[in-house]
Amino acid sequence: TEIYTLSLHDALPIWEPIGQGEGLTFSADRPHERIDCLWVSRNKSLVPLKVWVPQSNAPDHLPVVAEFELR
């Protein structure tokens, strides 16, 4: 959609620079794909410190969790 395209212009994915593990989120019972991700604004007011996929009883996708610093 147009909103999605505009938001990607101003955002960066955070897994590659700081992700822990492979970041696989689907399927929950046998993760083999990374289809869930978090993005952060390029303005650097919110700085990602850590991102990971925790173990979960989720039925289909595993959650993606992150810690941020607000500047």
Structure, described:
The chain has 71 residues and is α+β, with helices and mostly antiparallel strands. Helices cover 17% and strands 27% of the residues. It contains 2 helices and 4 strands, in the order αβαβββ. It has helices at 2-9, 15-18, and strands at 11-13, 39-41, 46-52, 65-70. The strands form 2 sheets. Strands 1-2 form a two-stranded antiparallel sheet. The longest helix is centred in the first third of the chain and has 8 residues, at 2-9. It is globular, with a radius of gyration of 13 Å. The model has no long low-confidence stretch (mean pLDDT 86).
> What is the straight-line distance between the termini?
30 Å
Q: Mean of residue pLDDT?
A: 86
- Quaternary status of these chains? single chain
Structural class comes to: alpha+beta
One letter per element, helices H and strands E, the order comes to HEHEEE
Shape: globular
- Biggest beta-sheet profile: 2 strands, antiparallel
What is the tally of helical segments?
2
Strand-residue proportion: 25-35%
Topology of this structure?
Blueprint: H1 2-9, E1 11-13, H2 15-18, E2 39-41, E3 46-52, E4 65-70
